[in-house]
Amino acid sequence: METKTKTSARVCAFLHKKGVSLSPKTYFVDAMGAMALGLFASLLMGTIFDTVADFIPNGNVFDEFFVLLSTAGGATGAVIGIAVAYTLNAPMLVMLSSGVVGMWGNNFATYLLVDGIEKSVTAGPAGAFLCVLVACEVGKLVSKSTKVDILVTPATTLGIGALVAMLLCPVIGWGMYWLGHFINYATTIMPLLMGIIISVVVGVILTLPISSAAVCAMIGISGLAGGAAVAGCCAQMVGFAVASFRENKWGGVVAQGIGTSMLQMGNIVKKPIIWLPATLAAAITGPVSTCLFKLECTGVSAGMGTCGVVGPIGVFTDMGFTPTSVFGVITVCIVLPAVLSLVFSEVMRKLGWIADGDMKLDL
To answer: I want to staple 73 with a disulfide (CB 3.0 to 4.6 A). Which of 43, 56, 60, 165 is the partner?
Structure first.
């Protein structure tokens, strides 16, 4: 027993020395947050620039400029790899190699037979994320352990990354495709029920220290389901901004309405009931989106809400600037969540369920 204890202590000391924490928070909160930033800097920005390019006449320098900017999405896997490795405090060689691993994980294709047609699907951001997690941590273990570190470290990181990609990415691609397919299809045949479920769940994920944008990108959410996700995220951000206005004033509106409702997590832990107004609002705006306005959105944009106005931009990217999309975005993303959350929170304040100061932020 004593020998095992000493061995375990040595292993823990070695892992600590190499910066390997084996912490769920590090991997599934911090690293997923980094993946969301990577998605924002590549895929999301590329999509936004591509939308802008559609409004610029062909054959001039501005058109070429925005067409070039729209190719940013092609670097998604590599950017995710570097972002995750940076968050894991990887040494330089491991970090750079992780960019390659992220590219492999994101683009590794497998083939499915769907309705008699062979369809190529990739593991996408989920594949990039998992491949980089494993490869980066193993790469950190061997980093600077030999005199030929410049060869051993990238070779090990790349080798492990390629192996994980070959073993896991086909399964991940298959799983993510069918999960996304199920959610997207179920929303088209049960828009009311799925609108409520998706809006509430994705909105809650947005406020939790988990990346809703990364989750939406991984499962490939789209169509009406993506619109419901936007509705839920906006309900949380706008809802908290309005419900906490008496405590946080305009600084809180900007910080939560354009920044993130995650700022309220500390207060939610102290008093979970303050989460109810925004969540109830999401349960209403979700089906309004799916059944009335039929808003659509795709991937990472669906999980961003009003953060940087990315959610509404994603809706316009998918649907164009039509009277329905414009009025729908204003109603579902701004007006309804603001009014509903304010009404619910004021009723709860009257009942004594929420007290002044419960949603106060240190701004």
So the answer is: 43
